[in-house]
Design goal:
By secondary structure, this protein is an alpha/beta fold. 37% of the residues lie in helices and 17% in strands.
């Protein structure tokens, strides 16, 4: 079972910073998950929210700022003084770090954006530049972005993120395994409480892997391992790694 660090080891360093990803590698995570957005001038950076208010000393939308503007903000002090003057990472910097760190899986979540095609093509260009085609997973809630990724690079792995399901959402989206197979997804990425052992079994019959998010309770690990889950996305890679190794 792979342990994937959610936005890096984000409970030990500011999320989606190089420090958080280095910490994840230090804690022996098998891989990392991050979020990619595009700046006003077309650069790719790592940021979960559409705005920078929650994770920096600035405000405003990422896609309305130039890269140079973003470099003027502090993306670390909100977490702690030791991270003062931490810069927002570019995708280029991130890939360089991950290639050197030797992680097994790099989960790149793409967000909805009016420049979606540009984002997808630029991300895949960077994947190719660093020869990471065998390690990168393109994930999204936006099925159009996943379709674009396969069109641009048929060999790229894609994963469908599923939200916290209510009955109406589940009814609208239907059978996740059938949907994944129909659209050629390599991974199902469900919220931790919206999947079952039967879903894992059926997904594996079609060669589809299952990796839930965000798994932070160690009591879930034994059950998920018994079900044959392929990996988990977690805020605590060290704790989850220790639990898995103890079983």
């Amino acid at each position: 079972m792979l342990v994937i660090a959610h936005r890096g080891a984000n409970r030990y360093a500011p999320q989606n910073t190089l420090e958080a990803f280095r910490k994840a590698i230090e804690q022996k995570a098998d891989g990392v998950e991050t979020d990619v957005r595009i700046t006003k001038d077309g650069h790719l950076v790592l940021c979960h929210n559409s705005t920078i208010k929650a994770t920096s000393d600035g405000s405003g939308k990422v896609n309305e700022k130039y890269l140079g503007e973003l470099f003027n903000y502090d993306f670390g002090s909100w977490y702690g003084s030791r991270y003062e003057n931490t810069a927002i990472p570019t995708l280029d910097e991130f890939f360089r770090e991950m290639k050197a760190g030797g992680v097994e899986l790099i989960d790149i979540e793409l967000k909805r954006d009016k420049r979606g095609k540009n984002i997808v093509s630029r991300v895949i260009d960077q994947v190719r530049r660093y020869s990471l085609e065998d390690k990168v997973l393109i994930s999204s809630f936006d099925t159009n972005l996943l379709r674009l990724a396969k069109e641009i690079e048929p060999g790229i792995k894609t994963g469908r993120l599923y939200p916290i399901f209510g009955n109406s959402v589940a009814t609208r989206l239907g059978d996740p395994v059938r949907n994944a197979y129909k659209n050629g997804y390599d991974y199902l990425l469900p919220f931790r409480s919206y999947f079952t052992e039967e879903i894992v079994r059926r997904a594996h019959e079609y060669g589809i892997k299952v990796m839930p998010w965000t798994v932070n309770k160690i009591e879930l690990i034994s059950k998920f391992k018994q079900w044959g889950v392929d990996g988990i996305i977690t805020d605590y890679p060290d704790v989850m790694r220790n639990k898995i190794e103890s079983l």
